[in-house]
Amino acid sequence: MKSRRQKQRGSTLIEFVLVLPIGVALLVGACSMGVACLRNLQAGQLARDVLLLADSGVDFGSPGGKQKLIEQGTSLGLESGKAAVHLTRIVCESTGYRIEQKHSIGDTARWPSQLQDPSKAADLKPGETAWVAEVFGESGTVTTLVPETVKARSVL
Amino acid sequence: MIHSHRRNAKQRGLALITFALSLLILVPLIGVGVDTAMLYIVKERLSSAVQLTARSAARSTTDPSDAARRYFDANFPPGYLGVTSRKFIYRDGELQASAEAPTYFMRIFRYQSVTVTASLNR
User: What local confidence, expressed as pLDDT, does residue B49 receive?
Assistant: First the structure.
């Protein structure tokens, strides 16, 4: 025959088991959102920093330039293939838009450039040029509520 | 003895009720946290857009205010991150931008959107 204390222990255990999935789901969801937000911010900052570097005259075609780009993207995991950066220089001519330079680094097979039509990236006047930076990375989420990829695009 | 037995019976389900009540506080708290994070992302992207726009306008050989508008549109297009409306003022190299960012959980407290601003002075 079970004692009263044993019965009480059993009911506490059942209550705990009922409450646990909700608590864990809330915790995992909140952590997932937090990590995804952080990665989103990092992607935006990387897009901006890469453009500022390009504008300052860094040649991303050279090994030194590529190294600088990798260093900038360390927080997003660019060196370990957890992110991809596409840097495109577009020119607007009287005949239309033209891609002058393109540098890609990281896992570009997983995240190819989405810049199919340069005219949609920026509204340029003939003779003007612009750098377009596209950054993709893993959001680090474990839930389906948050997208798996974070992305950012900036123009300078 | 009977009194003790009644007390034990009353305690059953207490953890569930306590947890359900704590959810009433926990869920809005997490919601406010998520909304704040989303607003921070909008703020960061708006600040970046303002910074890049200012640079682009400064080096433009044509009308700087027109260049600023075009580059701001490229960096922070309408509807970006769910933003409902945005304003942009460029005057003598000074930039001011604001955007109405939607909220997801703070709607419970009747905050449908929050105005996020960013500016850059010469």
Answer: 92
